[in-house]
Amino acid sequence: MDKKLLTLYSLTHFWVDLSCALLVFRTMAGRADFALCLLLYNFCAFALQMPLGLLADRLDRNGAVSAAGCVLTALACLLPGPVPAAVTAGVGNALFHLGGGIDVLNQSRERAWALGVFVSPGALGLFLGTLWGRGTAPALWLAPAGLLLLGGAILWLCRRTFGTMRSGNAPVELESSGGYAILLPLFLVVVLRSYMGMNQAFPWKGEWALLLTLALVLGKTAGGFAMDRFGAERASAVSLGLAAALYLASALPLPGVLAVFLFNMTMPVTLWAAARAVPGAKGFTFGLLTFALFLGFLPSWLGWPSLLRGPASYAVMAAVSLLLLRLPLRKGAAGC
Q1: Hey, is 206 helix, strand or coil?
Q2: How many other CB atoms are found less than 10 A from the CB of residue 81?
Q3: Which of 111, 121, 132, 225 yields a CA-CA distance of 20 to 30 A from 27?
Q4: 166: left (phi over 0), alpha (psi -120 to 50) or beta
Q5: What is the H or E stretch that residue 328 is in?
Q6: What is the Cα–Cα distance from 89 to 286, expressed in whole angstroms?
Q7: Rounded to an integer, what distance in angstroms lies between the CA atom of residue 153 and that of residue 156?
Q8: How far is residue 37's CA from residue 32's CA, in Å, rounded to a whole number?
Q9: For residues 159 and 178, what is the distance between their CA atoms, to the nearest angstrom?
Q10: Using 50, 70 and 90 to split pLDDT, how confident is the model at 177?
């Protein structure tokens, strides 16, 4: 993996997610149509990645797709209406993630550490963007300015790295090496992870919010390195097994933070395994799993009471995630 390109994509991931959170909480929160804006943003940012991912696979210009996402997100910050801004920001977010994600998947090949590095800064960007959006600092223009600079840098570095704007994507082929049934457990694991992220309620969460966010970020980073070192099946078994045990004591801050760290270590594993299962459509499989994120968000948006809340429920969900991952990792669809 070209480390300069990975660094740029990871930094841009941080800034795109920060900009989107800033936009949502500075310009949309508190309005009568905020719930609609939130639904439209999340639908465009996550559910649309599946069809857009297939288009990106065929286009074979991942840097241009990613840069276009930066431009659209910057444009959203300048639009006057909250609904058009939510839709534009969501589509921009989706395009950036797809372009960067396919490039990282293409170059990481048999390894997952680069995936962990790429996906992890987003959570920190969301956390800081939310704080910024709920604050009073007026410098909203910094978000689109940074996005345009980073989008231009992506175009320049991709051209320099590949010698062309073509990215070398595999010929598009939707046939799965392990059968699409192998993707179902991965999909369900991501739904559970998303649901957990939306519904975890710790009594100490407010005071430990920053440390909890860092645990989530570093867990995703560590998961890729752990998979490369110990194998996907073993790394997932240890991380989710320990997470389930620690969630039982998550009424206390330290076990809870460690449980969140360990639970999120499987994120790069699921992305990597899905891409290996359908190697001819990496953008499509990336989008398939982000659609799972959208489904995990819906119960919270609909206001449904959380049926799975509390230490025992969190432990059960971690254990169920472990059982679901055994099939795709053991069957060899991920090459393990």
Answers
A1: coil
A2: 12
A3: 121
A4: beta
A5: helix 311-330
A6: 19
A7: 5
A8: 10
A9: 34
A10: low
The residue written with tokens 């519904």 in the block is 199
CA dist., res. 111 & res. 147, Å (int): 29
pLDDT digits (tens, 9 = 90+) for 255-270: 999 999 999 999 999 9
* Average pLDDT for 264-282: 91
d(CA 315, CA 210): 22
What is the phi/psi pair of residue 137, to 5°? -60, 130
- Helix, strand, coil percentages for the chain (3-state, nearest 5): 75, 0, 25
Determine how many CB atoms are found less than 10 A away from the CB of residue 205.
12
Find the helix or strand (DSSP H, E) in which 90 lies.
helix 82-108
Range in 73-77, 104-108, 167-171 the model is least confident about: 167-171
Euclidean distance between CA atoms 53 and 288, whole angstroms:
9
Give yes or no for a contact between 270 and 326, defined as CB atoms under 8 angstroms apart. Answer: no
Rounded CA separation 108/117 (Å): 11
In angstroms, the CA 88 to CA 142 distance is 18
pTM of the model: 0.93
Token couple for 113? 């550490």
Q: How far is CA 301 from CA 239, 267, 325, in A?
A: 29, 23, 27
Q: Tokens in use for 200?
A: 């975890």
